[in-house]
Amino acid sequence: MKKVKVGLVQMTCTKNKQENLDKAIVKVREAAAKGAQIVCLQELFTSLYFCDVEDYDNFDLAEKIPGPSTDALQEVAKELGVVIIASLFEKRAEGLYHNTTAVLDADGSYLGKYRKMHIPDDPAFYEKFYFTPGDLGYKVFDTKFAKIGILICWDQWYPEASRITALMGADIMFYPTAIGWATDQDEETNQDQYNAWQTIQRSHSVANGVPVVSVNRVGFEQDGTMKFWGGSFATNAQGKLLYLASHDKEETEVVELDLDQSDFMRKHWPFLRDRRIDSYQPITKRYIDND
Questions:
Q1: Where does the record place the CN hydrolase domain (predicted)?
Q2: Which of 14, 22, 135, 156 has the greatest number of C-beta atoms within 10 Å?
Q3: pTM score > 0.85 for this model?
Q4: Domains of the chain with bracketed CATH
C-alpha cells in the first residue's frame, strides 16, 4: 500500500517577515519530527495578509522565486528529508508580481512553482491590486513521496481547476489559503461561510477521487477586524474528513493518506470514466446565451 504522511501548519503571522519565516521553519521541524513527509504552509505565510488595503509599500514584501525564502527552506527540506510547499509573494520583474507557491523536494531541490490563477477582488481581499493572474497553467509536481497538485486559496472555488489538476495525475491536491471572517458578522453567517469553503473543497476530493489538504492561517489581523478562521483539514479520496483544525489556535498536525484509495474509489464510483468529454465544449464560454 502506498501511504504518505502530510503535515499541515496552521499559524498566526506578524509584521516581521524574517520572524514569520523562522517560525514556519520551526513548525516544519515539528511536523517532520511527527513523521511528515510532505509539509504544506499556509498562503503568504511570511507576512500578515496585506491585501486588506491597496498600499504600494506592500510590494516591498515581494521576492524572487527562487530567492531568499526558498533558499532557506531548501536547506531545511534537505536536512529533514521532507517536501515543503511554500506560498510566497513573487516579484517576477519590475512592476510584475504573482501570488506563487514553490515546491521543494526532499533532497532540497527546487521543483518549480505554481502561480495563482484565480485572483479575488473583494472588500479586505484586494488581490488584483497586487497580483497578476498566473500564466504557468495548472501544475503537478513529481516529488519523492507523491505527485502533488497545488492550487491557491481563491482557486479552491473552481471545480475546473481541481479537475484539470487531477487529470494531470495529481495524487494529492494541496490548497494553501488565507480566508477569514469579518469580526462584525453574526455567528450563523460565519458558519455558513466556513461550511461553504470546506464543502466545495471536499467536493473536489469526491469528484476526482483524490485526497485534499487545505491549510489556512489563523488569528486576528487587520487591526482586529478580520479573524482568519483556521479550520485546516485533510480528506481521503472520498472526501471523508481525516483531520479538522480549530478556528482559533495554531496547530501542526500530521495525517496519513492512503493513496491506493484513489484507484479503489475511481473503480467503484467511476466519475472520471463516465465523464462525457464530448459534451463539455460550452464550458469554455463566459456564459451560454445568444451573445
A1: 4-259
A2: 156
A3: yes
A4: 3-284 (3.60.110.10)
